[in-house]
Design a protein that fits this description.
Number of helices: 3
Number of domains: 2
Helix content: 40-55%
Distance between the termini: 42 Å
Order of helices and strands: HHEEH
Length: about 140
């Protein structure tokens, strides 16, 4: 896995060998902020995954950063969702579109990029990144 190997190499190259209590206060704050961000991102992506149900294409994938302690921390992530229409079944396609919308709107934290694809009435906007399947949801 090339992506993971890159971070493993970065961690191996990292020259500091300090325990967390040997960091200055700025580095300690950075580590705490990275830990908090990681927890928030994982919860956020889990909410998407849970709401997507059978339409999720596997589990979440994450973007990482090496912290001042040499550890990898999650900074962002995504859950791939199957947005293709269901052949010859408009009703099932509409239900699928509702499930996709629910998955996009799942996290309860501040407004996310996924939610910005919907206007105040919950209708998909032209800038929405999802396929036209969402246009079926009224």
């Amino acid at each position: 896995m090339l992506y993971r190997r890159k971070f493993d190499i970065e961690a191996a190259i990292y020259t500091k060998s300090q325990s967390e209590d040997e960091f200055d206060s700025s580095e300690q704050q950075d580590v705490q902020a990275l830990k908090l961000r990681e927890m928030e991102v994982k919860q956020h992506e889990q909410a998407h995954l849970t709401a997507a149900g059978q339409y999720a294409r596997g589990g979440p994938t994450y973007e990482y950063k090496i912290g001042p302690d040499g550890q990898r921390y999650v900074l962002g992530g995504e859950v791939q969702i199957d947005t293709s229409p269901i052949s010859d079944d408009p009703e099932a396609t509409t239900e699928k579109a509702r499930a996709i919308k629910k998955a996009a709107m799942a996290p309860t934290a501040k407004q996310t990029q996924e939610q910005k694809g919907y206007n105040k009435n919950g209708q998909a906007t032209p800038t929405d990144q999802f396929s036209p399947i969402l246009d079926l949801v009224v």
